[in-house]
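Q: What residues go here?
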């Protein structure tokens, strides 16, 4: 069946009928060049007439013997149309190959997670059948539907896989330490309370939920279980007949506050995805904290610690005490090493929005091929605004004139091709009359036997064109309102830097590139996150100074700095560059690191404390280690950063153990 087109370009006869009243005011650049010399024009004129079957000449000769109208329509159609309509199908020949293109618009409801997967799967199945039936035919596909389906399938797979493996690993850890079924249930209910709290907040605050939010939110399992570990190990020691020790109570509260403050930075993120992650984790942590504080103490009598886990913590304490005695040379050596590494290989940043994309290479190649066919692979979109249609058209013509100076062969599809400004039309009329008076156009009278009219033609206006068959194309590129006129065009053949430079010179001209705009937002937010990391370090110093002492605060902030800097350098070395998501990981590492530093300073190198922190670190590294196996670059960067950071803080945080001066 033929494709139903939403807009059919007017036929040559329709165009001739529309533009013929304004013929000598509408001159193409090619035609104007031929008017420079009489011999040049005569050669051009005879060549055009001798082209048998030229549809532009045959459609316009009776209306304009000078062939200016034929040249105007022909040149503009060549620039406006890449495709022809053959047998009801869009067709283009490129490098000797014939392509047929089907363009389809889908309703937004068909782009949901499950519907996009089902619909894309059905289409791909049919395409594969056709490719098998017709081996000489090659059918390729691309578009939002297929990107959505691939990313959704990948995210659902990773969410199920990572979440399932993480839960199994956490259950194994809990059972090894507590050796009771009820301890597994308590840990599971702590995580479940966090997930329920996060889900409720998401449903209340957002109409739709990004699927990648749920992938990032798997990390909530690793954070929420920390509360259960610290709570259950403290309760199992039974130092108090009812409830937690005072140190654990204050440490749990301080942990909640610091982690929540860390994730609050996401609430103002330019991407809804990041805001949703922030809301989900904050609400989930509050729920997990409430469950830990209010429910876990009710099961205190049933909790015990296995001898093997206590033995392991005793061995770790010996190692940590030995390292603690060498803290000064260790920290000096690490600081010098990190400084040297940053000098040898400085870090760099990559803010490309493609980091959020997990589409296959096959689909990306298809998209590139299709954009090349559509002439949009290297094109940029420019919007222009002015107070009136004439001011807008003059602005567009002047802008294009400057771009022509940069590259005479650049391509564009401006509406001023078809609707020149009134000023340009007057100039065209003057040029035509001048050529006529010089005798340049005498050949038209000799060949056709018809004298060129000397009557001054009217000028073409927006109001005239919008009532013609040309209306659909005109309105698709230009809108005129009482107080403002707007148009857009695509441009190729001009470098991005040159185009940006020209755009910035003008008021009312804007470059539209959504991926680049999002990448710029990511860059701005990255700078904001860098500032947040510095601010977090300063707040930590104030918090530690107030709670402990200035000496301890300086030591802890030094350890924190060594951890974050080493994490960033390692990730930069592995990835080749850092992204916003590495800094998000650094923010989480700071929040978790403060937890460890607070628990060590309050509960010291006690077996139950070392055991709880070891369980916390192991569970977090496991959960985030899962994310570092993701095929989505953003998730990989986030998971790698947190895994490396937690590994570093686990071994360095015991170096912070000192008695505060208030106790000495």
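A:
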């Amino acid at each position: 069946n033929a494709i139903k087109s939403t807009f059919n370009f007017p036929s040559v006869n329709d165009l001739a009928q529309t533009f013929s009243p304004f013929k000598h005011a509408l001159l193409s650049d090619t035609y104007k060049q031929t008017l420079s010399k009489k011999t040049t024009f005569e050669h051009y004129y005879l060549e055009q007439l001798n082209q048998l079957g030229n549809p532009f000449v045959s459609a316009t000769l009776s209306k304009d013997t000078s062939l200016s109208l034929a040249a105007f329509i022909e040149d503009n159609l060549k620039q406006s149309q890449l495709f022809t309509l053959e047998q009801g199908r869009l067709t283009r020949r490129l490098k000797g190959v014939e392509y047929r293109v089907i363009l389809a618009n889908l309703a937004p409801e068909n782009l949901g997670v499950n519907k996009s997967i089902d619909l894309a799967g059905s289409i791909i199945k049919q395409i594969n059948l056709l490719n098998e039936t017709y081996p000489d035919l090659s059918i390729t596909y691309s578009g939002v539907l297929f990107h959505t389906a691939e990313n959704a399938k990948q995210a659902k797979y990773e969410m199920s896989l990572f979440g399932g493996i993480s839960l199994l690993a956490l259950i194994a850890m809990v059972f090894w330490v507590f050796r009771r079924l009820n301890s597994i249930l308590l840990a599971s209910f702590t995580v479940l309370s966090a997930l329920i709290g996060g889900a409720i907040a998401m449903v209340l605050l957002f109409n739709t939920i990004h699927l990648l939010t749920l992938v990032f939110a798997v990390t909530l399992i690793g954070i929420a279980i920390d509360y259960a570990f610290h709570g259950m190990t403290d309760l199992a020691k039974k130092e108090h007949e009812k409830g937690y020790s005072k140190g654990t109570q204050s440490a749990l509260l301080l942990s909640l506050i610091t982690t929540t403050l860390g994730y609050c930075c996401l609430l103002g993120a330019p991407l809804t995805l990041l805001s949703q992650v922030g809301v989900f984790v904050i609400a989930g942590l509050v729920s997990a904290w409430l469950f830990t504080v209010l429910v876990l103490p009710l099961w205190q009598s049933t909790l015990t610690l296995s001898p093997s886990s206590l033995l392991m913590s005793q061995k770790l304490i010996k190692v940590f005490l030995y390292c603690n005695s060498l803290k000064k040379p260790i920290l000096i050596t690490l600081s010098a090493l990190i400084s040297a590494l940053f000098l040898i290989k400085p870090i760099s940043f990559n803010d490309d929005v493609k980091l959020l994309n997990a589409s296959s290479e096959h689909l990306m190649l298809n998209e590139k091929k299709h954009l090349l066919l559509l002439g949009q692979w290297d094109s940029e979109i420019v919007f222009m605004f002015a107070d009136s249609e004439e001011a807008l058209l003059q602005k567009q013509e002047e802008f294009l004139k400057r771009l022509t100076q940069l590259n005479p062969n650049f391509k564009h599809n401006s509406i001023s091709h078809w609707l020149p400004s009134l000023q340009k039309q007057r100039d065209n009329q003057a040029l035509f009359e001048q050529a006529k008076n010089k005798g340049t156009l005498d050949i038209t009278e000799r060949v056709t036997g018809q004298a060129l009219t000397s009557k001054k033609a009217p000028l073409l206006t927006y109001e005239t064109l919008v009532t013609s068959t040309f209306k659909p194309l005109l309105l698709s590129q230009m809108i005129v309102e009482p107080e403002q006129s707007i148009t857009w065009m695509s441009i190729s053949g001009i470098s991005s830097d040159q185009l940006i430079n020209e755009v910035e010179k003008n008021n009312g001209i804007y470059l539209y590139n959504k991926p680049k705009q999002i990448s710029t937002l990511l860059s701005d937010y990255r700078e904001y996150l860098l500032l947040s990391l510095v601010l977090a370090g300063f707040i930590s110093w104030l918090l530690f100074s107030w709670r402990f002492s200035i000496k301890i605060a300086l030591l802890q902030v030094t350890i924190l700095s060594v951890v974050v800097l080493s994490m960033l350098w390692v990730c930069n070395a592995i990835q080749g560059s850092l992204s916003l998501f590495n800094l998000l990981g650094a923010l989480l590492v700071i929040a978790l690191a403060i937890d460890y530093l607070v628990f060590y300073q309050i509960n010291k190198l006690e077996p139950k404390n070392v055991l709880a922190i070891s369980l916390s670190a192991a569970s977090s590294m496991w959960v985030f280690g899962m994310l570092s196996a993701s095929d989505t670059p953003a998730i990989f960067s986030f998971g790698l950063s947190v895994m490396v950071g937690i590994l570093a803080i686990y071994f360095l945080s015991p170096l912070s153990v000192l008695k505060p001066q208030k106790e000495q």
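A: Context that may help when evaluating the design: The chain has a mean pLDDT of 84. The two ends are 90 Å apart (CA to CA).
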